[in-house]
UniProtKB/TrEMBL annotation:
PANTHER family tied to this protein: BLR2054 PROTEIN, LOW CALCIUM RESPONSE LOCUS PROTEIN T
Name of this chain's protein: Integrase core domain protein
MF terms in GO: nucleic acid binding
UniProt organism field: Crateriforma conspicua
GO biological process: DNA integration
Length: 157
C-alpha cells in the first residue's frame, strides 16, 4: 500500500487526514553565525568548540577543537579532564604567538568561552568574539562538521 491509497481510504471513511507540515529551514541569521560573518582569508575566523567522551572506566574527557574556517585546518585538538577559562587563555596565547592573531573567534556561549579571563584577554589583543545563539550549532557549522567527520569523536548533549 502506498501513501495515496491510504489517504484515499481515510477520506472515504470520513477520518481526518493529517496535514503534512512543511519543514522549517533554519538559516542561522545570528550576528555571530557563519552566514553573516564568513572567513575571507586564513586567520580571519577561528571556530572553537568542545566535545565530550568517556574512557573505558567511565571517566569523562573533554576535547577542545579549534579550526581555521577559511583553510578548514585543525589548529588545535586538546584533550583533558577539564578546561577553564585560564586554560583556554593559555592555549590561545601560545597559538597567537605561533600562528598569528585571528580577527574573530566563533564559539558557543559555554562557560569557558564567556569567562571574564577569556573576554578580557581577547579584548586586550583586539580579537573580536562571534558568539552563536544558544542551541544553534548550525551557526558554528565548520567545527560541527569537523566533529561529525571524525567518527571517534562523539558529542554528548
Amino acid at each position: 500500500m502506498n501513501f495515496k491509497r491510504i489517504h484515499r481510504l481515510w477520506k472515504q471513511q470520513g477520518l481526518k487526514v493529517p496535514v503534512k507540515k512543511a519543514k522549517k529551514r533554519r538559516l542561522g541569521n545570528s550576528e555571530g553565525g557563519v552566514i553573516r560573518r564568513s572567513a575571507e582569508y586564513p586567520n580571519h575566523v577561528w571556530s572553537v568548540d568542545f566535545i565530550f567522551d568517556r574512557t573505558e572506566d567511565g571517566r569523562s574527557l573533554k576535547i577542545l577543537s579549534l579550526i581555521d574556517e577559511f583553510t578548514r585546518e585543525c589548529i588545535a585538538l586538546e584533550v583533558g579532564r577539564k578546561f577553564t577559562g585560564d586554560d583556554l587563555v593559555a592555549l590561545l596565547s601560545d597559538l597567537f604567538v605561533s600562528r598569528g592573531i585571528p580577527s574573530f573567534i566563533r564559539s558557543d556561549n559555554g562557560p569557558e568561552f564567556i569567562s571574564k579571563a577569556v573576554r578580557s584577554f581577547l579584548d586586550f589583543i583586539e580579537v573580536g568574539t562571534s558568539y552563536i545563539e544558544p542551541g544553534s550549532p548550525w551557526q558554528n557549522g565548520y567545527v560541527e562538521s569537523f566533529h561529525s567527520c571524525h567518527g571517534a569523536l562523539k558529542r554528548d548533549q
